[in-house]
């Protein structure tokens, strides 16, 4: 079982914490990362693109010429696909791109991503992350003090914290997530992971073997 130092926002040691081997020493399987990230990005697609078929375009109420005797190919409507202004054939229509992935696979992918980030030395646990008010400058100062200035940082908190979430949202390289929203895509696209002690406990509770049935 790995042990990690817990620091304050001033980067002073405030203790240590034992990390669950089930979560932070899991097998790293890149193909699971691919499957889960693909599922997440597919779910985010709007799927609102649309084209009109021959029933949706206007005009073409009558045959452009009689069926026989003209020497030309028979045509039923000027809104057929081969005509300019005609309808589309098998064009895109509004739909969902979401596809399912077993929960067991999704949890395994997240455990692997967290284990990968820890193995790289990219994980920091802070005792707490409380701000007196809304201040983006203060968040920048805290990250700088932790040696994370200018890097892509994912902050994981245990419960809703409007001051932290709103103060960090203007920083293009910093994201804040609550523990229940932690996901593979965001863990992988950020170089560093900062967890509050409460956030770490919530993540461990969510992904532990004991919590499998309720997750």
What this model shows, in words?
The structure is a single chain. By secondary structure, the protein is α/β, with parallel strands linked by helices. It has a domain at 3-28 and 98-211: Ribosomal protein L4/L1 (Ribosomal Protein L4, Chain: A, 3-Layer(aba) Sandwich), CATH 3.40.1370. It is 33% helix and 14% strand. It contains seven helices and six strands; from the N terminus they run ββαααβαβαβαβα. The protein has a six-stranded mixed beta sheet with strand order 2-1-3-6-4-5. The longest helix has 17 residues, at 103-119. The radius of gyration is 27 Å and the shape is elongated. It starts with a strand and ends in an 8-residue tail after the last helix. The mean pLDDT is 93.
Q: What fraction, in percent, of the residue positions are helical?
A: 25-40%
Please give the count of helices.
7
What characterizes the major β-sheet?
6 strands, mixed
CATH fold naming of the domain at 3-28 and 98-211: Ribosomal Protein L4, Chain: A
> How big a fraction of the residues is strand?
5-15%
Total strand segments: 6
Shape descriptor: elongated
- Report, as a whole number of angstroms, the end-to-end distance: 23 Å
- Which structural category do the helix and sheet elements fall into? alpha/beta
By CATH, the architecture of the domain at 3-28 and 98-211 is named 3-Layer(aba) Sandwich
Q: What integer value in Å does the Rg equal? A: 27 Å
Provide the low-confidence segments as ranges.
none
Task: Specify the CATH homologous superfamily of the domain at 3-28 and 98-211.
Answer: Ribosomal protein L4/L1
Order of helices and strands: EEHHHEHEHEHEH
